[in-house]
Design goal:
The complex is a heterodimer of chains A (229) and B (934). With 229 residues, chain A is mainly α. Chain A has 10 helices and 4 strands; from the N terminus they run βααββααααααααβ. Chain B has 4 domains: 314 residues, Rossmann fold (3-Layer(aba) Sandwich), CATH 3.40.50; 159 residues, Dimethylsulfoxide Reductase, domain 2, CATH 3.40.228.10; 132 residues, no CATH class; 120 residues, Barwin-like endoglucanases (Beta Barrel). Chain B has a 6-stranded mixed β-sheet with strand order 5-4-21-20-19-6. In chain B, strand 9, helix 12 and strand 10 form a beta-alpha-beta unit. The chains are: A mainly alpha (229), B alpha/beta (934). Bound molecules: iron/sulfur cluster.
């Protein structure tokens, strides 16, 4: 693979282009990672993610950005189901004046209504349709991660215009995860530092920060005619 | 074209030796694409053209369309019932918009557009963190904030088991089902609750008096409480006294009627101790000192009598003022004064007037039963005297008599404007001016909220307001009357009893609390032993005499709370929580939003919010039936109230069968009732006939007078439907949805449902005579010894009770936290500055709030908008800490055996009072404010 093949050829309408991204090496791994974080943070009451996680826990050495996702899945699976449910409720569902930690983005940012609209417009643009049962919570962190996972998946399988998915990933993560992930991790650390979810959130924070940096380092602005740069 | 920039590390793979294997493993895994929240996408879209993504703006370029638009409103007791379009996309409510479909009554302005900032915020609030989304069970000590999420099945089964344990051991009366005005206005929800209660026999505390909202002064005077018209009636008035009400804040969709009327020449006179947003827009603001309103009203009565501004013919016909009263014992002259009891009864009983036409005693039209005059108020040839003294020959000799009107003159003389000026702080000339303006206006109205009911002697204030209206002939005409409330003739109880019979156990909420929350002790601590003992003696005597039922002998062991945040609004809230609520063996809350009551519950069951349920609203302020339709399914595992009660009924039935619990004997109002809990579900659903809240709505549509008989689906499609007989602004049409009895009395001369058959201003019940309350008079409000400031409260602009009070956006329009309004001089005396945290206290307790200095507040008073939940305060303690009034039940409110006076649920029973206390404040100590921003 030559370095040039790592460049996504920009179209005329694009103001940005991608360079130095080896899809073969990155897309599937990132896709899987986002998917795993989505599963790890899905409601333990609603969704059984055991099978998905066991598969990864069985893989050798699944490390991304130095984060041992295989081990994280193993830890998750080692916690008793009921205890996990209770922990999820305690942190994200029930509390004195609302849950101690917001697991929905809009709650974290003071119910700013634009947040959810932005999410849903992204979802609609890329035909991501949430099941009716979860439709009311498009800003749940697990749903947000799942959508990013889907964008990575598309990036890895489409034959043309990967650029759409790559730029969308970057913009979406910039708008919805990069600022929130550290707050999310800090809040859980404050409330229950020894919890399974504290481990997950710390890893997520690291992953999002690193992946965002990496994505940024592969995106370049187009030079327009008359641009001296 | 290629640029260089610093490359961040790529997602790190395993060492290159294993990289290929790893990627193979990963790509081969069946789950590279795992969508837990969405159906698996078939194949990746190939973006091109419009579908290509280049910048985030692209997602906003696509036309934003709605999946559907649903009709709805906010099923709370804001009295707005505003018609909204609710916009739904992708299973989410995005926004709401006023439907704007209203018309008008006569030449009055349109009822629309209707709405307020709370309603327009609801599509955001419903997704807020305060929502209860799943059934929850408290773990460990109550109130410690530890919960376990459980299934509906587990929750209802465990609740049903405890319920059945208690029923078997003590009978169902030890279990309460508390609800509130919010619940009552969602008609299908309230019908469901009533049916569940009728089947199970739980005790339902009546909440109108329970929250201090029962206008019992109207019942005492007119024999009913439903006297109000539509809001458009305000426009028909020439003089409106806005008294004990602040519509600019509390009736946002309707406030325009006041300003439309003012523009049209009506005098809008606001009467309130504090300068309110209503006062700001009125023609005149009159500010009596708190608790002196009756003094002001009676001073106006004095002017009207002194200056002979009254309508003599009206009161001769409609009121008891011409009735003869014995001088010796101050009792009305009755048929029994002329004949033996049995002869008097045989003769039709009744009361007497002095007929000026024949210069003799005559039976008063409308009084007694079965006599010639009993059926009508028509005077015919009679001309009842209003003034004079006479001697009449009675059974036992000569009786000296006068008229109630003469006694009223004496009473009014005690309230001369100069005397009352000192007491009220209102200049005597102002009193005269408003009395004259009021008397001259044709018609004149008093628009009042429920605040009067919250004073210990609020009934007397309402009686004096009605006196002002009656003397000036203003009960009856369009644009007149005392406007407090009316009630739809919804067949709630018909639904509750259908196919079962009457087995409902209702109780006065105030007496229920008195019995269970150690209220005598509270009175003793606050108002002294003498008052506590006196009030208690009369209370107990009333029950002994059978004037009031008591369902308290079995104790209070379990409580359901639906549409009711009782530990928030109760006077002496924390004390009630400690001495009553927390003593219960089981507490179950059914709520859409968390609050202090749910926080102290054992089980919290999630209830659907306004846009997630089917129901219908009726409120007499507008002549429309308003729908609530399901825009989106209830969030999480919430269900509507119909369904919640169905799930409870199912669990009770199932567990009763499994445990082999047979028929349980019960007694309701002395009648034997047999309860078969095994059949709970069949009875609740009418053997499966009623399947959902929509079916309940249909029942209500089909059985409520005045509602056009249409399918619920049609109502849901239209959003609002106008009720029949609403062409005028008054509810004076018998065939319409609201009560029209007053009009029937004034227009058709049908006697009132009072002891005399007339508007009843003179009450000669022995207890009223004993407490000098036969006629209205100013009575000093109670106070807490040593505390100089009277704290007043009112409904808030940015919340309906506790709902929306914690919304972040609405909070940003206020101070962001609970605040208390203080006169600047009072604040300066205590070295308090605006924004300081202050401690408000008396012997009953303390709470903290932010000082909000305002010159609109009189010296020696404090003002706070209500509804702030205790969970929003330091120490989980709101204003209820200093409201020491919860045990105050005045003896005359427990009186009975006197026509219109005596226990009648939602018509006559003692109000919970909130105003008769005083307190003080100081700057909070540094210990309290440590860590807070300066
Ligand atoms: S909250 Fe009440 S007044 Fe406000 S918009 Fe809704 S229905 Fe109307």
């Amino acid at each position: 693979m030559t370095p040039d093949s790592l460049t996504i050829t920009p179209t005329n309408d694009s103001e940005r282009y991608i360079q130095d991204r080896d899809l073969n090496l990155t897309a599937a791994v990132r896709c899987k990672s986002y998917g795993l974080f989505s599963s790890l943070l899905a409601s333990s009451h609603e969704i059984d993610v055991g099978k998905q996680l066991r598969e990864v826990a069985g893989m050798d050495n699944f490390c991304v950005y130095g984060i041992d996702l295989g081990a994280l899945c193993g830890t998750y699976l080692s916690v008793d189901k009921l205890a996990r449910k209770n922990e999820y409720s305690r942190l994200f569902e029930i509390g004195d004046s609302g849950p101690p930690v917001a697991i929905r983005e809009q709650q974290q940012f003071g119910q700013i209504s634009g947040i959810r609209e932005d999410l849903v417009r992204f979802y609609e643009f890329f035909d991501y349709k949430i099941h009716q049962h979860y439709a009311w919570a498009p800003d749940h962190i697990s749903v947000i991660l799942e959508f990013t996972h889907l964008l990575c998946y598309y990036e890895s399988v489409v034959s043309e215009d990967q650029l759409s998915y790559q730029l969308a990933q970057y913009d979406f993560v910039s708008r919805h995860l990069v600022d929130w992930a550290p707050i999310f991790a800090d809040l859980i650390d404050n409330v229950q530092p020894d919890s399974l979810y504290a481990d997950i959130a710390r890893s997520l924070c690291l992953f999002i920060t690193r992946d965002h940096e990496w994505q940024a380092s592969t995106i370049f602005p187009m030079e327009r005619s008359g641009d001296n740069g | 074209m290629k640029r260089t920039q610093k490359m961040a590390s790529p997602p790190q793979m395993p060492a290159s030796k294993g990289r290929r294997t790893f990627l193979r493993q990963l790509l081969a895994s069946s789950t590279l694409l795992t969508l837990n929240h969405a159906p698996i996408a078939a194949s990746a879209p190939q973006p091109s053209g419009e579908k290509a993504y280049r910048n985030f703006e692209d997602i906003y370029r696509k036309k934003w369309t709605w999946d559907r638009v649903v009709r709805g409103t906010h099923g709370t007791n804001c009295a707005g019932n505003c018609a909204f379009n609710v916009y739904v996309k992708d299973g989410i409510v995005w926004r709401e918009e006023q439907q704007g479909v209203y018309g008008s009554s006569g030449d009055a302005p349109d009822y629309g557009p209707r709405g307020c900032q709370k309603g327009l915020r609801h599509s955001k609030y419903m997704y807020g963190s305060q929502r209860v989304l799943y059934p929850m069970k408290s773990i460990g000590e109550r109130g410690n904030g530890k919960w376990e999420r459980i299934s509906w099945h587990q929750a209802t089964t465990e609740i049903a088991d405890k319920f059945l344990d208690l029923v078997v051991a003590h009978g169902p009366e030890c279990i309460s089902y508390g609800s509130g005005t919010q619940m009552a206005l969602k008609r299908a929800s309230f019908c469901s609750l009533a049916r569940f209660a009728n089947i199970t026999g739980v005790t339902v505390p009546e909440f109108l008096s329970g929250v201090g909202d029962l206008p019992s002064g109207i019942q005492m005077t007119l024999g009913q409480i439903h006297t109000s018209d539509t809001m458009a009636a305000v426009y028909k008035s020439r003089c409106v006294l806005v008294w004990m009400s602040n519509p600019a804040v509390t009736r946002i969709p309707d406030a325009h009627f006041f300003w439309d009327a003012k523009y049209n020449g009506t005098e809008v006179i606001a009467i309130s101790p504090e300068f309110t947003p209503t006062a700001m827009h009125s023609s005149l603001w009159v500010n009596p000192k708190p608790g002196t309103d009756t003094a002001l009203a009676m001073a106006m009565v004095n002017v009207i009598l002194e200056e002979r501004l009254f309508k003599a013919n009206y009161i001769r016909e409609q009121s008891d003022l011409p009735l003869l009263v014995r001088m010796d014992n101050k009792r009305f002259l009755r048929a029994e004064d002329f004949a033996t009891q049995s002869d008097a009864t045989a003769d039709g009983g009744g009361f007497y007037i002095w007929d000026e036409a024949t210069d003799s005693v005559a039976r008063a039209p409308g009084s007694g039963t079965g006599n010639d005059q009993a059926a009508t108020l028509k005077l015919g040839k009679l001309r009842p005297a209003l003034e004079g003294r006479w001697r009449v020959q009675g059974l036992d000799g000569v009786i000296e008599v006068t008229t109630a009107f003469e006694l009223l003159k004496v009473r009014a003389a005690e309230h001369a404007p100069e005397l009352m000026s000192e007491l009220t702080g209102v200049n005597a000339n102002v009193i005269r001016k408003i009395a004259r303006t009021f008397a001259a206006a044709e018609p004149a109205m008093i628009f009042s909220g429920y605040a009067a009911c919250k004073w210990l002697h609020g009934d007397i204030l309402q009686r004096s307001m009605l006196l002002l209206l009656s003397l000036t002939g203003n009960i009856g005409p369009e644009g007149g009357g005392l406007q407090i409330g009316n009630s739809a003739k919804t067949q709630t109880m018909a639904f509750a009893f259908d196919g079962i019979g009457v087995a409902f156990r209702g109780i006065s909420g105030t007496t229920w609390d008195y019995d269970h929350a150690k209220m005598k002790q509270l009175n003793q601590e606050t108002y002294g032993k003498k008052l506590a003992q006196e009030f208690d003696d009369y209370y107990q005597e009333s029950i002994r005499k059978g004037w009031y039922p008591s369902h308290s002998s079995k104790g209070w062991k379990m409580g359901f709370f639906a549409g009711n945040n009782g530990a928030n609004w109760r006077a002496s809230g924390k004390r009630w929580r400690k001495s009553a609520l927390e003593e219960l063996e089981l507490i179950v809350s059914l709520v859409p939003d968390a609050g202090v009551t749910s926080h102290y519950s054992d089980y919290v069951l999630p209830i659907a919010h306004h846009y997630e349920r089917a129901d219908m609203m009726l409120q007499s302020r507008t002549p429309y039936v308003q729908v609530l339709d399901v825009a989106v399914p209830p969030l999480g595992e919430a269900v509507d109230d119909w369904e919640a009660n169905r799930l409870l009924a199912e669990a009770i039935g199932r567990r009763a069968k499994e445990r082999g619990i047979g028929i349980i004997d019960d007694v309701i109002d002395g009648r034997r009732v047999q309860r078969d809990y095994r059949r709970c579900l069949e009875l609740y659903t009418m053997n499966g006939k009623i399947k959902s809240a929509k079916d309940v709505c249909q029942y209500i549509i089909d059985t409520t007078p005045g509602i056009p008989k249409i399918p619920f689906a049609e109502l849901a499609e239209k959003g609002v439907v106008r009720v029949n007989g609403s062409e005028r602004t008054t509810w004076d049409d018998k065939e319409t949805t609201y009560h029209s009895e007053v009009f029937e009395s004034v227009r058709d001369k049908v006697p009132y449902q009072t002891v005399s058959g007339r508007q009843s201003f003179y009450i000669d019940h022995e207890w009223f005579l004993e407490f000098d309350e036969a006629l209205p008079a100013h009575k000093k409000p109670l106070h807490n010894e040593g505390y100089p400031l009277r704290m007043m409260m009112g409904h808030a602009r940015h919340g309906i009770h506790s709902m929306w009070r914690d919304d972040s956006f609405l909070l940003s329009l206020q101070r962001g936290e609970p605040d208390i309004y203080i006169n600047p001089d009072d604040a300066a005396e205590r070295d308090v500055k605006d924004g300081d945290t202050v401690r408000i206290f008396n012997d009953a307790g303390e709470f903290f709030a932010m000082a909000h200095l305002s010159a609109g507040i009189q010296p020696s008073m404090l003002f706070m908008y209500h509804g702030w939940d205790p969970m929003m305060f330091r120490n989980r303690q709101n204003f209820g800490a200093v409201i020491s009034t919860a045990g105050l039940i005045k003896p005359t409110s427990m009186a009975g055996g006197y026509g219109q006076i005596g226990y009648k649920p939602a018509r006559f029973s003692p109000n919970q009072t909130y105003k008769d206390f005083t307190c003080d404040f100081e700057k909070a100590s540094e210990e309290v404010t440590a860590g807070e921003p300066a």
